[in-house]
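REQUEST FORM: STRUCTURE PREDICTION
Request ID: SP-0412
Submitted by: Lab K.M.
Chain count: 1
Length (residues): 490
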Amino acid sequence: MRKTSPIKAIGKKIGYVLAVIAITTVSCQKDSDPNPGPPVQPAALGKAKVWLTRGDQTSLLAQQSDISITALKDTPSITIDTTTQLQEMEGFGAALTGSSAYLINKKLSASQRSSLLKTLFNETDGIGISYLRMTIGASDFSLSDYTYDDMPAGQTDYPLDNFSIDKDKEDVVPVLKQILGVQPVVSIMGSPWSPPAWMKTNGSLKGGKLKTDAYDSYAQYFVKYINAFKNEGITIDAITPQNEPLYSTASYPCMDMPATDQLNFIKNSLGPAFQSAGVDTKIIAYDHNWDITDYAISIVNDAGAAQFVAGSAFHAYAGNVSAMSIVHNANPNKGLYFTEISGGAWATDFSDNLQWQMANIFIGTTKNWSKNALLWNLALDENFGPTNNGCSNCRGVVTINSTSGTVTKNVEYYAIGHFSKFVRPGAHHVSSTAFDSGTQLDNVAFMNTDGSKVLVVSNSGSNQQTFVVKQGTRQLSYTIAAKSVVSIVW
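STATUS: Completed
RESULT:
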């Protein structure tokens, strides 16, 4: 990933409020008193429960007073239509990088680790993260440079006789196993920053291209990776052939993989290798910024490659989220995935960061057909590390103090939580009308497999606003504070 991000601190602190609303049904009871008092207002429509988080952090997911649900009276601000189902959601979360796994595994006591993983992955007591990205070998957030088949300079291993995930068994594998013990329903995507150096034109983990005579061997490298983790009880749900394939000048592992190279690799080597080995792990193309759409479109529209490709993935370090809809419209049968963005010390205002993340990453990507939304490092330390020649001031979803093990929940934790805690894997994005543009309100709606509905509304304006939501014969009214986000569940 690149050091810079479009998230910019605006300077002046703006109070930021998040509220989570869960709607519960209250049974209507007949009054057995022969001389009842005044008519009781209908209770069958229920109450909505509210949890609030403020930008000044004086309230963090704290329960507030209930609000009432009423029969339809007013013209609704928006209407939700659950019969119009759009993309199926696969999950929300972040990346379990080598650095994140090291901190969780080595810098926390057993009780601290258990508490953190419950807070991150349990949807009742925490935010219920349901999707993780991991690096296939080293990245800019690892303890060192490595792949799963490193050889001395000048030597090769095309049969992959020396393939081993032992480096990942130090921290990544143990932490993944503990995570799955807390939350078994977690999808995992693997992305490589570089193949082994001997497979590359420059013989280095940094820069260069994949040698054409290494295509088939590299395809088997992915098969071995998937099977090695399967042997550890860890299912790799999806892979991308290359992280940020158009950025190959970094001082950490990276590789140049133009669209034509990736297309040919998938069509002629990776796809057939998966098919022959009976591997059903999804192949996701591209995995780079929104500013380029032709790369992904060229692959998902090529018949030979498309038969093996489930969709394409995007980062948010350049371009606009609408690029995902452009790619969707080019081939609506293929999935879209959002796989990386990082906050950092360059943007410290809780309110402004969360507003940007809602507009662009969580509401923004899901409205533009993404099946998931992932941030970058799950955890970093108080010094924004450990790093491996990459970003020196990136922020994790949580910060782990490397001395005390104290965990600080950052703005990213609450941003993910507004979705992951309530929109569970298998949910569908459903139709919801837009607010009038002048309101500065935005929304996205979902329906879970159990029939529960989730509506997330953001208010980017400077004034509080009351909105009405209609779904079927019922309506809900809520007054949303300025610069705030609300999640409503019924």
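NOTES: DSSP finds ten helices and 25 strands in the chain.
Reviewed by: T.R.
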